């Protein structure tokens, strides 16, 4: 696995101004970003991190003052991705303003967490078996902790999955799992792993 040069995978964190979003915003956000930087849909390792937001009583999402739009991309695409800076996005009828960006390198952390990893069905044991098989194929040794069942809508499709923690990863496997992720729909925020401190929070 490459550890330097343009093949390195990084996160690009854009400042994001906005107020509210629909709870199922992921597909609309993906389409709006792809409209501005069309090449992102053909990037095999590209992903859009789930936005950090709080649910309102009405079921919408409230963005924090320091919200970030984070893309996971190879370093060779960083300058092209900067075309998003200053753009006005419309996501499900809600306006968002993309600000300045910072590049963050991936850290070889022993514990990683994904908000949702897609599943073939609602059976948790089948999901865990599938994840264990995927990790064996990647030769990534670690413990798996399954969290909450989650779902999202992408137009007429319902995508289901579970939150997932990988614990006890070595440095090389940690970077590998952040680079390749697990499951499908990375452009919808699925299967993207970030560093995490607490196993108990997921278990």
Q: Which key terms come to mind for this protein?
A:
203 residues; four-stranded antiparallel β-sheet; Alpha-Beta Plaits; globular; alpha+beta; 2 domains
Helix and strand topology:
Elements: E1 9-17, E2 20-21, H1 26-36, E3 47-48, E4 54-55, E5 61-62, E6 68-74, H2 78-81, E7 88-91, E8 94-105, E9 111-118, H3 124-137, E10 143-154, E11 157-167, H4 171-180, E12 194-195
Antiparallel strand pairs: 1-6, 1-8, 2-5, 3-6, 4-5, 7-8, 9-11, 9-12, 10-11
CATH second-level architecture of the largest domain: 2-Layer Sandwich
Sheet with the most strands, sense and barrel status: 5 strands, antiparallel
CATH topology assignment of the largest domain: Alpha-Beta Plaits
Which parts are unreliable, with pLDDT below 50 for 5 consecutive residues or more? Answer: none
Let me know the average pLDDT. 92
Q: Percent range for helical residues?
A: 10-25%
DSSP helical segment count: 4
CATH class of the largest domain: Alpha Beta
- Beta-strand residue percentage: 35-45%
Rg measurement, Å: 17 Å
Order of neighbouring strands in the sheet with most strands? 3-6-1-8-7
The number of domains: 2
Order of helices and strands: EEHEEEEHEEEHEEHE
Shape, principal axes of CA atoms: globular
Task: Tell me the total number of β-strands.
Answer: 12
Distance between the termini: 31 Å
SS class: alpha+beta
Written overview of the protein:
This protein is α+β, with helices and mostly antiparallel strands and 203 residues long. The protein folds into two domains: 9-105, Alpha-Beta Plaits, CATH 3.30.70; 111-195, Crispr-associated protein, domain 2 (Alpha-Beta Plaits), CATH 3.30.70.1210. It contains four helices and twelve strands; from the N terminus they run E-E-H-E-E-E-E-H-E-E-E-H-E-E-H-E. It has helices at 26-36, 78-81, 124-137, 171-180; strands spanning 9-17, 20-21, 47-48, 54-55, 61-62, 68-74, 88-91, 94-105, 111-118, 143-154, 157-167, 194-195. A hairpin with a 2-residue loop joins strand 10 (143-154) and strand 11. The longest helix has 14 residues, at 124-137.
